[in-house]
Request: fold
Amino acid sequence: MSKNEPRAHDRSHRDRQIDEVGHDPYHARSKPAEPAVCPQCGLIYHKGRWQRAARPEKANEYVCPACHRANDRNPAGYITLTGPYLGAHGEELRRLIKNEQERVAESHPLQRIMQIEDENGKLIVTTTDVHLARRIGDALHAAFQGELSVKYSPDEFLVRVNWTR
Ligand SMILES: [Zn+2]
Reply:
């Protein structure tokens, strides 16, 4: 095991396919001098990690990767929901999607839903992170069955999740 290998604890949260996708370029670019605060969402960058914390007295202002993606309108995850089930169950589906984000909000504050939009009878959800998109897809499948497909883009940090019922 090389020095650069992530700790076992960190690795256990990762999915092998996601390792193959590589690392989020927005994270790689986001190495501000510490401590830093995101002027948009108030997260604090401390010990190499964006986290919820009290604002330090002297903090550099620096836009966090999640807000940066939102500003660029450049999602890392797309979840597309289709099929007749959507018509009568749109509210339940939206609720489940929001619940999944709330579950990770504390431990992974950079994993956010950007938008949930109706588009010609489809529901399209965009996220700031591939892990959250995958998680939402798995939750939809577990709660409502249907058909799930997950495609990682090999060249970019991007996942497309399709769910239909
Ligand atoms: Zn932010």
Q: What stands out?
A: Strands lie at 36-37, 44-46, 49-51, 60-61, 77-82, 113-119, 122-127, 147-153, 158-164. Residues 38, 40-41, 43, 64, 66-67 surround zinc ion (CB under 6 Å). Residues 73 and 114 are 8 Å apart (CA to CA). Confidence is low (pLDDT under 50) at residues 1-16.
